[in-house]
Each structure stands twice: as C-alpha cells, then as structure tokens.
Amino acid sequence: MTLRVGVLGTGMIGQDHIRRLTQVLSGVDVVAVNDIDRARAATAAPKGAEVFDTPKALINSDKVDAVVICSWGPAHEEQLLDCIAAGKPVFCEKPLVTSEAAARRVIAAEVAHGTRLVQVGFMRRFDADYRRLKKVIDGGSLGAPLMYHSTHRNASVPEGLYTSDMPLNDTLVHDADISRWLLEDEVAAVEVRVPRRNTRGKDLRDPVMVLLHMGSGAIVDVEISVNIAYGYDIRGEVSCENGVAALPNRPAVVVSDQYGIRQAIPEDWRERFIDAYDQEFREWIVAAGQGTATGPSTWDGYAATLVGDAALRAVDSGAREAITMIEKPALYGKAAARAA
Amino acid sequence: MTLRVGVLGTGMIGQDHIRRLTQVLSGVDVVAVNDIDRARAATAAPKGAEVFDTPKALINSDKVDAVVICSWGPAHEEQLLDCIAAGKPVFCEKPLVTSEAAARRVIAAEVAHGTRLVQVGFMRRFDADYRRLKKVIDGGSLGAPLMYHSTHRNASVPEGLYTSDMPLNDTLVHDADISRWLLEDEVAAVEVRVPRRNTRGKDLRDPVMVLLHMGSGAIVDVEISVNIAYGYDIRGEVSCENGVAALPNRPAVVVSDQYGIRQAIPEDWRERFIDAYDQEFREWIVAAGQGTATGPSTWDGYAATLVGDAALRAVDSGAREAITMIEKPALYGKAAARAA
Amino acid sequence: MTLRVGVLGTGMIGQDHIRRLTQVLSGVDVVAVNDIDRARAATAAPKGAEVFDTPKALINSDKVDAVVICSWGPAHEEQLLDCIAAGKPVFCEKPLVTSEAAARRVIAAEVAHGTRLVQVGFMRRFDADYRRLKKVIDGGSLGAPLMYHSTHRNASVPEGLYTSDMPLNDTLVHDADISRWLLEDEVAAVEVRVPRRNTRGKDLRDPVMVLLHMGSGAIVDVEISVNIAYGYDIRGEVSCENGVAALPNRPAVVVSDQYGIRQAIPEDWRERFIDAYDQEFREWIVAAGQGTATGPSTWDGYAATLVGDAALRAVDSGAREAITMIEKPALYGKAAARAA
Amino acid sequence: MTLRVGVLGTGMIGQDHIRRLTQVLSGVDVVAVNDIDRARAATAAPKGAEVFDTPKALINSDKVDAVVICSWGPAHEEQLLDCIAAGKPVFCEKPLVTSEAAARRVIAAEVAHGTRLVQVGFMRRFDADYRRLKKVIDGGSLGAPLMYHSTHRNASVPEGLYTSDMPLNDTLVHDADISRWLLEDEVAAVEVRVPRRNTRGKDLRDPVMVLLHMGSGAIVDVEISVNIAYGYDIRGEVSCENGVAALPNRPAVVVSDQYGIRQAIPEDWRERFIDAYDQEFREWIVAAGQGTATGPSTWDGYAATLVGDAALRAVDSGAREAITMIEKPALYGKAAARAA
Ligand SMILES: [Mg+2]
Ligand SMILES: [Mg+2]
Ligand SMILES: [Mg+2]
Ligand SMILES: [Mg+2]
C-alpha cells in the first residue's frame, strides 16, 4: 500500500521533494526519476530507484503509481497530458502550464477522464497559519471580507535570472491563489501600479503593487518586494465588515538585547513554508493512493495563469485588465458565489 | 506673557479645545469666544471670557493675542483673512477652507503679510507614535521609502450626517497630510477604488481604497473603513528599500483571559489622539507667543484641499486624477525633492 | 525495516500514542498491545496487532522490536527491567518510576546492559519553541543564564482526582526537566511557597511557587497554576547576563474585534504539544531502529523523581530541601558543569 | 494662584525637577532653592529665584508655599519635620527617611498636624501603564490577584557607587511600593534569594530575587538585575484566579530589518518614566495648592523603609523576615484588608 512515485525533473525543487518523499513522509517510495540531464537524475535517484530515459516512459511504467512534476514549466503540458492519459495521479509544481490555451487543454483532458488527477503546487493552502486565517474568516463572526492586504517580500532574487516580468507572472501566483482560496472567489480584473524603484535591484521593476478585483467586489492589494534585504516576510490581513484578521507572526524566540525586543524573520521560502510543503505532500499521498487528487486543481492552475497574463497586460496598459474564464466544469466544484 | 486666545466656534471641538486651553495647558488663557449661536458661546465661555457678537470683532479686539478657529468650514476663509489682516496668529481646525481658490487666497494674504500666521489642525503630526515613525524613516537606515500602507478605521459614523463623499473629502485629509509629512513629498495624483460595500453602513460608500501617487514615485495606499465596529484603529507601515517600519500598538494592558491574549483598542479619535491634540496646542502656544506659526501650514491645508478634490474626481472618473499645485512660496519652505 | 512496536497500557495516552504510531508517523507498526483490562486492549489494538495476556509476554515476543510503556506509574519499574533484560528499546511515559530506589534499580540495570535503551516521555524537549529557546541560550550571545522564569498554567484539573500533591510530584516534572535541559545543569535544592489560594479549586493547594536552585547557582522560579480557567499557558523566560530570551507566543490569527486585538490560547496540553509528541516519537523510532535510545534518559527520569520528592518535602518543611544524586554513570553523558 | 515652590537639593534629580516645574508644568513657579553646595544652588536657580543659606530658612520663608526635597536621604527627616512644623505641603524624593524610627517620627508629626502634607516620590503610581494595569485588576473580572511577577532591570549601575545593599534598600523600593499599591495590601514578610552572579558587575550582588509575602497571602516575586546591559526594562504581570494581566510594552516603532522584527527598549528610568514624573508633580501641584497632599504618603514611605530593612535582614539570614507595622493612623486611610 506504499505509493510508488516517479519524479520528473531533479533540479533543486525536485531534489527537495525527493528528500521529503523518502526521508520525511510515510506511505510513499520514490521508485523512478527522470531529468533532461540524465547524470543529474542518476545522482538524485534514491537507492533502488530506476532512472528513466524519457518522461513518457516513466509515466507509463507499471512501477509507477503516481507522478511528481518538477521539470521546467514549458514541459508541464505534455507530461500532464501523458499522466492523464495513463490515468495516474500527478502532483505538478507551479506553474501548471505556461499559457491559457495549454491550461484549457489540460482541463479538457482531465474532464474527459472524469475524475481529478492533478494537484498543483500551491503550498500556502497547506500552511497552518493560512489555514487558521481561513478558519476565522469562514467562521463568519467578522462579517464578509471586503479587502485583503497581502504582503510578499523576498530578501533578494538572483540578479539576471529574475526578470521584471517575474514579480507578475511568477511571484504573484501565490498571492493570487491564496486570495482566491481565502475569499472563495475568482479574480475578475487586475491592475498593476509601479512605485518608486528599489535601488537594490538596479533596473528591476521592484516593488510592484497589484490590485486584484474579485468577483464579489472585494479588493486584494498586494505588495510584491523582491529585494528588501531583511528577510522573507509573508503577511496578510483580511479587512471585514466588523473586524480584521491577520496571519500570525511566525514563532520565534523573543530576545531582548542591545538590538531591542525582537524576533527573527525567516530567511527564505524554504524556512517559512517547510511544514506546508510536507503537509501538501502528506495530503497528496492520501488522495493519490485512492487514484485521485484533492487540493489545488487544474482549475486553480488555470486561474493563476489568467491572473499572471492579465497582470502583464495591466503593467503595460496601466488599465484594469479583465479576466474572462471558461465555464467552470463541475469536476472542479461549483462556481464561486459572486455575492454583492 | 500668557497668550490671550479667542475661540471662534463653540461646538463640540471648540468646547474641547477650550477645555484643553484652560485646564490642561499652561501659558494660555481663553479670553474671548464667539459662535453663530450666541447662547452656546455664552455657555462655553470660561469664567471671565467675553462673548463677542461677530468673529471680526473678536479677531480685532485688543484683548485677543491669537485666535482658534473651530467654526464650520465655509466660514474659515473670511476668518483666516481677518486674522492675517490683523497680524494675529491663528490655529485653524481642518478643513483649512472648502475650495482650492479659497486656499490660494489665504496663501496670497499670508505671503503678502510676510511671515507665517496660520497653523492647521493636522494633529497626527504631533502624535508621539507618528513622530517616532518619522524619526526612523528620516534616520535613513531603511533606505528610501517606496510604499506607505495607511489604514484608517472608524468604529462608526453618524448615519445620515456622514455622506459617501466624506471618506474622500473629510476623513482622507489626515492620511493625505501624514503621508506628505512622513515622506516629505507632495501628492502628484490620486486614484480611488471602491471595494465590496460594508453592509453595516447601508448605502454608504464604505470602505474606499485610495492610492496617492507621490512626487517621488512612492505609492501610498489607504484603506478607509468608517463602520468597522470594533474600534478606532489607525495603522501605518512604511515599506522601504531594505526594511519596513510600522506605527506601534497603543499601550494597553495585555490581558490573558477567556477571550485570548488581548489588548484593548481605542474607541475613537478622542481617545487615540488626546495627547496629540494637547501637544499640537502646546507647540502652537509657543509659536503664537512669538507672533508666528509653525507646524502644518496654509500650504499643507492647500495641499489637503487639492487631494480631497482630486479624490472626488477620481471616484467618479475611475481614472488617475493629477494634482497641479502653484509654485510653492518660499514662506512655506523649499519644494519637496522629487527624487526618482 | 519497519519498527514493530508493542504498547503496554491502552488508556487515554496509550490510545493517543497508538493513533500517532499508526496514522501519523512512518517507519513504525503497532504489532502488539497489552492492558490490565483485556477488553480495552482488544478495542485499542490496530488491525493485525496481537493482544498479549501479560506485559512480559509482549516484551519478550519475537514480534516486538521495541516497547512503549503507557501503563500506570507503579507498573513501570518491572516493565522497564523486563525490556532491559530483553535488550529492547523502550519509550516510557512519565513518571519513569515512583521512587528514587526504583529509579536507581533501572539505572543499574541499564548501565549493566551497557547501552541506552530507555527514553522517558518529556515531550517539551521536542517542542520547536523550546528548541529555539535553547538554541539562543546555547549560542552564548546573551551570556550565562542566571534566572529562569517558568510559568505552567492549566485551565482546570479534574476535581477529586487531582490532589494537592500533584502540582509538585506530577505537574512540576515538566518544568524541572526542561530547566535541567535548558540550563544543562542539575537541581541542587528545592523550595516551595504557597500563595493565596485560588478559590476556583476549593481546597486544592493552587497555585504553588517553586524555586529550583541549580548547581550553577542559577535560580528557576516556577508558577504552577492549575485552575486558571483561561487556557493552557506555558511560558518561559531566561534572564541572562546581558539579555533575556523568552518562549514565543503560539502562532494564532491576530483578530481585531470587539474584544480587542487578540490571539487565541491553547485549551490544553494536547493542543499545545501535539507536534512535540509527534517529534518525540519520530526521534525515538530512529534510535529504537538502531537498538538504542536518545533523548531524555533514565537519568533524567531519576532526576525528575528526586525533584518531585524534594518538592513534597519542601512544601511540608518550608525549608530548602537539598537533592543528593548518585554519581552520574558515563552512559548518561558527563556530569553537569557547576560553573559559579 | 501660582504655587510658589522652594527646592532643597540641586543635584541631578533636583535640577531635573526644577526643569519640570519651570518648563513643563503650569500653575507653579520655583522661587527658592537651597543646596549644601551654594554655588551649585546658584547655578541651578531659575531666573528670579532666591538662593537660601539653609533648608530651614527656605522652608520658613513667606515666599515659599510648598517644598520639594531632593537632598540626600539622611537630611530628609529634619527637612520634613520643619515643613510639617511650618504647615507646608512637601514633595519628598525617595527615600522618605533612612530608618524606621525616623519614619515613625515623621508620621507622628504629620498625624499631630492633622492633615496630610507629605507626598513621597514613588513615581510609578503615576505611570499610565501601571494605572491601566491597576484598573484591570480593580475591575475584578480576573478574580483575586494571587501572584505578582515584577521585573526590574537596569542596563548598568555606577561601579563603586552602587553597592550590594542597594538592590535591596534602594532599587527594590519601587517594586515594593507598586506591589502594595497594585494589590492594596501590606508586605508581611520578605525573603531574598541570590542567583548565580552576573559577571558584568564583578563582585556586586546582582541579580537578586526577592519574595514579598503580602498580607492576603499573595506572593510577589521580584527579579532585580542591575547590569543587564540591554536596557531599562520594567515588566509586571499579575496572576489572578482566572486570568492574568501584564504591563504593556512601551510604544515603539516596529522595525523589520536585518536584526529581526523589533522594538526599542528605553535606555534608562528617565526615558521610561518621564511622563510619570510629570504627572506626579501635576497632581502634587493641585493638592499642594489646596494645602495638603495626596498620592504616596508618609505611611507608604514608612512601609518602604520596613521592606528595605527586612530585605537586608533576609539576605543575611536566608530566612523569612517578618515585618511588624504600627497601627495605621486614620490619616492614611483604612488598613489593608487581609483577605484569605
Ligand atoms: Mg510552490
Ligand atoms: Mg484634526
Ligand atoms: Mg509527557
Ligand atoms: Mg522616584
């Protein structure tokens, strides 16, 4: 009853997930790996795992019950379609795919298959703090949520590799997804404003301010700062009709010393979300063992793709860029209520 | 050497300032009052103070060294011009005046007079917390300020009296002024977005989200919520190049009981800013005793008027409404550096 | 390579550990159970586990690689000695045993065996917050620890079942152990003071204040309050030569509503330490799989027994009750440095 | 109606009070000064104030309505008795006097006079935070107070000048007084324990731990650390029957930077209690203007003297040193209820 997993892509995130699946979590074995760099795959393969020559061979192997996709984005569509064709549960790191059309093809394939097979790697939904926040909002004692202030700060990004589009089509995806999930709503339109530039990032467009206009009329404002030096700081506050609720501080020793009364800040997303990644896979393993998927879906990946596309349009146009979604297939649950 | 003050307008705020000037502060006496309702003025007059029939008579009386204007907004322009004509220092509650043209006339008169006489009632600049925050930003260790998140929440507003324009032309004035002061910059343009409505306020446009585009490119985003029930909650956070600084929590006993680990929130602006009001007048008394004014100026009142006007235009147009200011008279200091 | 575990005692804590071992943790199976109430054992037994008639039969079964003792305290000595005789790793819930003499017999047996086999259930050492606190102290930047303020508050205790001795010989054990671990020191003497009584507990001796005089001279003061109603609140602060370090608050949504700015408090030890219990067993499984034990040892259980005994003497005598320990066997590491 | 004040003693604290009385507060003038060092008195004298040759001459001058004693402790008794003989209100910095016998002589004189004239300089009672804390306790929602944890930390003390007795007969006085006031109770006995020494203070007895056994049975435990380097940190927490209440943090900007999420700590008592000192005199001026005194009384100074004496006995004896008070004169209010 141990889930036999094949991993596609053995770069940094792939290696981390292999570690997680082999050393941290139970009920799962990594039995197969593949990478465009075969030597890297061989190095990353845990003892006893087979190194496959192609993604398709791995996906279709009888050894493999379920697949984890950690390859680069452009490869995702084909790998996802192959998994669906093989009827195998698949965990896909973000981005789901790299275009709206591709997202719609994956949706069509999964809908044709008839049951969910895909879980997308939006790990924030598995973070205990975000779950606590959602529970408070869902409890209803604060009334309807009207605004959500989301703050997304990175200490630094790799110069040269991280481009000015990436705050909007890469980093923003987490804020977009968590906003949809927290507010149980879709993003109807996107605006982007560009504040005074942070000189630490040279010519990089940083910070950016994004407004997500939700279907209900609630507004999400996002600060994305990617070179803020002091740490990886993820904050969120929901302003409701008669109260507000905010993400807790991360637990950290309260030290009183020459620098004041202070608490440490996580250095990076690994430190901040390590437990969320574990929980994300814990729940995936259970669902995959039953031949299906729960958690963030192909639909959520599609929605995130649309938000990223709209954000890129919005930063160019300066205008409010509307998002038009296809009708939501029943497979992905009922459409968001657009309360007003 | 006691400053002899005349108070114009003895409504709620006028009465509170009379209390402050007679019972809390030193070096000052209230010797004259005037109100459109003479009986109200008589009741509010402290022992020994004369009740004047007209604002002009009070302003021009030899008994009166300096004037405090607490009348309604439309009366301010004439009273201010009379004070300047009489060469008397004057404290003017907000709004300075009710139109851009009026503000320019007051500026012209004061410039012609040659020294500052007017202090406008933007009390937040005298609040110890805001001063601490400014000191940190000015210290420079966090780098340039890029975004300022300002949160302005009222437990409730009087139904019927408080209209949908007032978040923008009344409440916003404090956030606009404190943003200009904290960032040492002017507002170049204003945008307004209207989130899902708070049903507690019925048809009232509440909350509103305001974006102030500062001359430097820094963006200020303001949440104004005026029926949020839980308290009067004023927050602010400046996001800089390599760190952020936030207003402190108000001091309040940390109680651990059946409701959690908790601290009380101020009920209203009187509780929150009571010390700021005292300090505002403390500094006014010193300057007025020297025949002049420091603190928020006619220029600051003019700027606030422009922001309010632009915000009203912006909520109608949905667009970015630019602000065009006259050249800043030397009397009001040097123009804001527009660093970019 | 799955560790096959037998569980002795299937009451509340035994059932919880069975759940943990079967549903939460990996690398482990519960293959055997025993309880003085055979029907209860049968009900608690996971699928496929054998119900043994006696502890000894379970301990000596070839099926069983390692043992978890959750029986009542007076049964622990014999079960521990049987485990050691069988050379099997054993996790023993607190109390290790119920007398100093018994503790010394278990030590003697384990020392004769030559390697560690016993881990005692002091779960606080596995709590992420306490570990963060220890890391800060160990880092040395605050200088030597001089005082440790430990606060141990329970919302309530079961009336009638929880006696006036239990704050000292049951509840205190956790503060004593964590003090020894944090400060890397032994308790040299104990004093107890009894404050004004909490009327919620009727005649119960509650709260109590305990002073632990550590070998180094550091003083630990403990507040034990067991009927404080508002929650389960575990706090700790180490006062050092040039700074202090405190346990973090538990992560909890920061809600601003009519009760203030507030965060929830755990209801009980299950909620507070659920992750610590998991981690405690995670580390035990690794060591037991290697035929040994790490974590809190028989020596630590012996020390806790001595502190409880001394506290009971101290509450009667009102005096400082010294603790005399046997020489520390090398098996348990080097003796605590008694820096002064 | 301006209160004409004479100041005895123009050292550091005397100079600070002269500044306060002349520059900060209203309704008061400093018209006379005296110091054992006449040149120092002349320098410290505000414009127009007379420098007196002797304390008695100042006290008895018709120019002087009320007296502020800032001379050294051994001079207080005679100056207080002279003030009482002259029927003049007097503010006396701590210590009231330097022996129990002297305290009783001052009490006797004031009781014979028939109305209160003396206010002792226990400024914490005027601190807004402590007042908020007392209000919560007095509100009664938390039930009876059972323990009070008081933390008194100084960054440093002057080497050589500050002796090992001073934590107990000088620093402790504030914790003792605030405990009596918060709990509305007397100290019945004192114990002192001496933890491991802070090497920063060389041979200085630092820190010390003091237990105050209150009449009601409530226990106050005090940490006094006088060389803790990181700041001046005054904390307090009252543990009650069904909840706890703690002093708020001082308001300070919340900075997130490379040192963490942090708030500054006051450097010294001047910074921490500057507002309390102002308020202390504000209330004194009002009472003195009416020819009497409110606030901390001769009785409170007497109680503090007894606690300091008992603490010195206790550190030598290692035992619980009881305090026996004379019957409380009606002039000082009713005796503390000894609820149990
Ligand atoms: Mg992810
Ligand atoms: Mg104002
Ligand atoms: Mg335990
Ligand atoms: Mg004092």
TrEMBL record, chains A, B, C, D:
<dbReference type="InterPro" id="IPR000683">
    <property type="entry name" value="Gfo/Idh/MocA-like_OxRdtase_N"/>
</dbReference>
<feature type="domain" description="Gfo/Idh/MocA-like oxidoreductase N-terminal">
    <location>
        <begin position="3"/>
        <end position="122"/>
    </location>
</feature>
<comment type="subunit">
    <text>Homotetramer.</text>
</comment>
<dbReference type="InterPro" id="IPR055170">
    <property type="entry name" value="GFO_IDH_MocA-like_dom"/>
</dbReference>
<protein>
    <recommendedName>
        <fullName>Inositol 2-dehydrogenase</fullName>
        <ecNumber>1.1.1.18</ecNumber>
    </recommendedName>
</protein>
<dbReference type="InterPro" id="IPR050424">
    <property type="entry name" value="Gfo-Idh-MocA_inositol_DH"/>
</dbReference>
<comment type="similarity">
    <text>Belongs to the Gfo/Idh/MocA family.</text>
</comment>
<feature type="domain" description="GFO/IDH/MocA-like oxidoreductase">
    <location>
        <begin position="130"/>
        <end position="244"/>
    </location>
</feature>
<dbReference type="InterPro" id="IPR023794">
    <property type="entry name" value="MI/DCI_dehydrogenase"/>
</dbReference>
<dbReference type="InterPro" id="IPR036291">
    <property type="entry name" value="NAD(P)-bd_dom_sf"/>
</dbReference>
<comment type="function">
    <text>Involved in the oxidation of myo-inositol (MI) to 2-keto-myo-inositol (2KMI or 2-inosose).</text>
</comment>
<dbReference type="Pfam" id="PF22725">
    <property type="entry name" value="GFO_IDH_MocA_C3"/>
</dbReference>
<dbReference type="Pfam" id="PF01408">
    <property type="entry name" value="GFO_IDH_MocA"/>
</dbReference>
<keyword id="KW-0520">NAD</keyword>
<keyword id="KW-0560">Oxidoreductase</keyword>
